[in-house]
Amino acid sequence: MNHTKLKFSAIAVSLAIGLSACSGESTEQKTKNVEVESVKQMKSAQVEAEQDIQSEALRIGKNAANWQIAQFGNLDYIPASHRAKSENAKFWIQAAFYIGLTRWIDATDDEKLKNFVKEVAERESYELILERPYHADDHAIAQTYLWLAEREGIEKAYGPTKEVFDMILSKPPEVGLEMGDSESSTGKYHLEGNCQLRWCWADALFMAPRAWAQMTKVTGDPKYLEYGDNEFWAAADYLFSDEYGLFYRDSRYFDAKSDNGEPVFWGRGNGWVFAAIPMIIEELPDGHPSRERYIELYKKNAEGLMALQKEDGYWPASLMDPDKVKTPEVSGTGFITFGLAWGVNNGILTDQRSKEIVEKGWEGITKAVSDDGRVHWVQHVGKSPDPVKESDSQLYGTGAVLLAASEMLKWNK
User: Fold this and answer.
1) Catalytic residue among 138, 203, 229, 392
2) Tens of pLDDT along 13-33?
3) Per-residue DSSP letters for 118-155?
């Protein structure tokens, strides 16, 4: 909330008290008049502050979406090591942008942006990357295809994904969730270990489970949601720390310590999961037996995250060790702000502290987005807390900002 406006409101109330004292009113009437005026002034200031947030969200979301789209075909600002992957619309880097973009379209009903998404999906023939069909990263783009199938009634949009999912159900992976120390490669893209046939790392819970729930929604067949729900909880139970209310990135970090001796909890890694949980909840049918379990996990994770926000509104790249990377990091902050704003907007987080943390996070995001819509301070592709420069930008960072902006458009607290 705009605290300056509330301050001026308080000054106005004080003046009202003084004016009332100079009149011939009774003490009781004076008190009543002052109370009424105080409520009016505070409500007026609150409404104005909320309108300012909504207006800023509309401006930032629109600019960020348009700037990012304008960069396709010219991604020279992305390090060469990940540029080719970033140019692939089926790969998770772009897919994470489309997840934010489709959420933004739902909030604004922007026809131009919707047509852009349809064109991309049609150009890609609604296909996944097939070199590693089990890999969660390569299921992320399915969320956009399935969004089109449900929202626009494009039945062919889910066919290729359904074929892949049906194959997985016919041959479910039988590996553990421990991430091996040695790294291997499969096909054209990097694979960290055989456990990635399942969802053994935090990022995977953003990339894949929602798509499996969406598949049940568009087909009416419960088997997809059943598989996604079971695999989500296998991973969440394995990676979530009840002690800290946070997610480890993968098993290699269970006992890892940062340079300053603190446990290693990756900011964006937690952001991935925390942003995914609300979107999964929204896909569940009414009365689903896991709904309350997701909400309880959401609350635990929210509490762990809210305790770690920095004074500048950002969440550290290394959540338990803010001195590890002292600069802002906007991808994790965007995902976390989205998740918290969703909780407030949906009546799950009702305390004043939660609202203030959301507004503080949003204020940090607004400072990181240029007037032209470029999102700054985005940690590049990685799996742990790494240094960030102001000029660093990536598609998933814009996706995170669009998710946050879509919820701040609804801000009325």
Assistant:
1) 203
2) 444 444 444 455 677 776 667
3) HHHHHHTTTPPP-SSTT-GGGGTTHHHHHHHHHHH--G
